[in-house]
């Protein structure tokens, strides 16, 4: 593993144009699809119970984000997970608002047994998902109250139970797998003022996992690309409408040199 | 009540970052969430029957907008209203396309008995919701055919039945409560060319109602902030794509001085 | 039919402001509504089984796009088609991802018997919808794998079975009816990097069909307006965030002279 692996994975996504199936919440479908297109992949929001399982077998990667789940979408998510696991398709769990709401928390925790290839969430969501301490976590929707560092034990626990990679999003993102921890410092506070920046990251992780690189490296590269574009966007935009546009443009056009310049990546 | 109350409420929203639960239609979820973030609040689109009631008890404010309601979302809206009323959470009814479609009209009228803290709609929707004249109102979706002035009796009737505040949107917005009428002239015709400007206003009203100010003042301030940003945006943009961006930027950055300059507010 | 018919139809849409009911997938609702507003029409996303049929009787045009269909939306689509046909409202079928997924393919093919006034899709979708060759078509979501030319026999078949107009989207769009084929060369590759450019075209076609012009001319004009704006946008934008904004602006402001300049239209 060398840091030069990251731009290579970014270019592999652009070359391979992986098809990413996103079972995600209604509020972020538009920005998620545009982000997936901007990074060079191809989105499909197929999420019904009758189609999601079949689609997961032809998709390159799958995102499960139960942000506004209807009963039909829950069934679709279970079908997609089953289809992905049968076909060996990498899939990502984004435990949106885990801990704050009973039904989705139960659903999200139940998916750990299905061994997601990656989990991506804020510190409070990762802590609530791991459920090591009943008193921890959630309650304020998708905003992260805890600090990323505090979620490392929960992330390590989840990595051990799933064999996958866990990304904790924060001012510094922390990527945790069974034997490795990597920290990425980048992004900009305005990312919090645009809906779907966090949710779209889960889809980007699915795309990066699909191109055959080392999974830990792939999750690091996904976070680095996503947040380096956020740092670059802040150079030309200072309010959320124009920032969103600049961020999508930056995701599309980011160079290997910019990835290196805007994202500080270090092994812990 | 002095006009200086309005910028104070705008700043209170930015300081308190209220959590606004939006049960709204799929077409405007993205822009509504981005508008809520831009004014300094925090959005959550939790709308399922199993979660919406619990969430309304922890939310700072709730929006009910039955623009594209599935049966599951109707159940979620009833649960959210019950939860909000139990917890004393202010909630807003946006009677989208009331009068034009039977099922939603029946649903929207039934919510009057639950006493929404505020109602926000176009003149035809307010008239149809009050149902004083069976022949009045609706039929063309969300566009307002009638003039705001003509809806004042209906708005007054709704204010009396609910004890809440009624906002009639138009070229001049009219805010009606039991003992007071306030008119706000601002905005720009290009707002009609961007989807969700009206629907997002309901969510902004919910945010403004949540910070502890006088409710009538809060609804006036919400309308003033929303439309003043629309007036400001028109200074730099003349087509809807760039106008939408400029409007979101203006919502985020609007100063007290600009609120005063771009919105003419008068008591009637 | 003269090419001067096309700007006239574009202006007729702006003058008549037709009300377009869009039963479409959640990911493109926002951009579809904004595109409909930008061309001067009025969108309504009414898609529930209890309301869609009534609404189709008052709408000027209807779009059916089963991109992320729930069971309730399927029922709404059937109700809308029945209502549209009863009232003589023109309606458009967009067979998203036809051929790649069993349930939607069955649903989309079943609608041919209801005789859509127009069908709009990529080559692979048109081929799969016509179902002339069981081995052809789909499997990669909404991206078009086949070339538009290869889909002409399938389009001709569909035109004969429905009596309607079939638009095949590609680098060159091909409009096929029983006795006429027209080709439109315009647009820009960046359109593929913005979600909903294709899906919104189906709604634009519905708007154009509603203003009383010759249906084949109307479908040509819809494609020409849509893609000429795409060509114009590429003059000022080179990445998808800014390109999307520029495209919406161009849809709104496109002149008759620009329609002629940016879109090459020829009869085959």
TrEMBL record, chains A, B, C:
Classification via InterPro entries: Hyethyz_kinase (IPR000417), Ribokinase-like (IPR029056)
Which pathway does the UniProt entry assign to this protein?
Cofactor biosynthesis; thiamine diphosphate biosynthesis; 4-methyl-5-(2-phosphoethyl)-thiazole from 5-(2-hydroxyethyl)-4-methylthiazole: step 1/1
What CDD domains would the database entry show?
A: THZ_kinase
Positions that bind substrate: 45, 196
Record keywords: ATP-binding, Kinase, Magnesium, Metal-binding, Nucleotide-binding, Thiamine biosynthesis, Transferase
* Binding residues annotated for ATP, in chain numbering: 120, 169
User: Ligase: present as a keyword of the record?
Assistant: no
What does the record give as the reaction this protein catalyses? 5-(2-hydroxyethyl)-4-methylthiazole + ATP = 4-methyl-5-(2-phosphooxyethyl)-thiazole + ADP + H(+)
* Membrane-spanning residues: none
What the entry lists under SUPFAM superfamilies is as follows: Ribokinase-like
Q: What does this protein do?
A: Catalyzes the phosphorylation of the hydroxyl group of 4-methyl-5-beta-hydroxyethylthiazole (THZ).
Name the family: Belongs to the Thz kinase family.
Q: Write down what this protein is called.
A: Hydroxyethylthiazole kinase
Species this protein is from:
Corynebacterium glucuronolyticum
Name of encoding gene: thiM
